[in-house]
Amino acid sequence: MKDSATALEKMYQQLSAIHPIEETAWKDFQGIWTTASYKRKEVVTAAGEVERYLYWVVEGVQRGFHLHDQKEATVVFTYPGSFSGIIDSFLLQQPSRYYLETLTSSHFLRASYRQVEECRLQHPSIAELMYKALAFTTSGILERQIELMVYSAEEKFRTLLKRSPHILQLVPHKYLASYLGIDATTFSKLLGTIRLG
Questions:
Q1: CATH classification of 4-119, choosing from 2.60.120.10, 2.30.42.60, 3.40.50.2300, 2.160.10.10?
Q2: What is the pLDDT of residues 2-13, one digit of tens each?
Q3: Rounded to two decimals, what is the model's pTM?
Q4: Which positions fall inside the Cyclic nucleotide-binding domain (predicted)?
């Protein structure tokens, strides 16, 4: 994939902003990534499978969702410049409760659990980086829990647009409605009444 070097450079910039990475650690860490591509609407990881890879999105949009009694609940979106994969399944090496699917044709860099673990154990700066990244992720998850539990539909909608204004162009609206925990009709009404920008 021609964009691998550019993707690794972007990854380095984003990760080193969270925590400084020693040169030898980065050399080892960047060496564990290989390329992978999936077509649109392809399941990358299915519920019941153990997530074997950590992904870095080079191109495309993906969503993680849970399926219960034929009803889907979208829990996360990933897009270029972000990590992807079913993170709890990856870290615990336990069967996933979620699906990860591509919403568009997608290209990734990916590294196996064993490779990531070897880097983490060998390099303190990688271990500290992962710790801080998980702390930020946990903070974001808790904040989102509050939004889902106490915000009105309009507050959820406005918060989403403030946090990720580009998302309306990237993700089908039915999945955004599911992500916000509101029905598609309410989402359409909000889209028509709330001024964007």
A1: 2.60.120.10
A2: 578 899 999 999
A3: 0.90
A4: 37-120
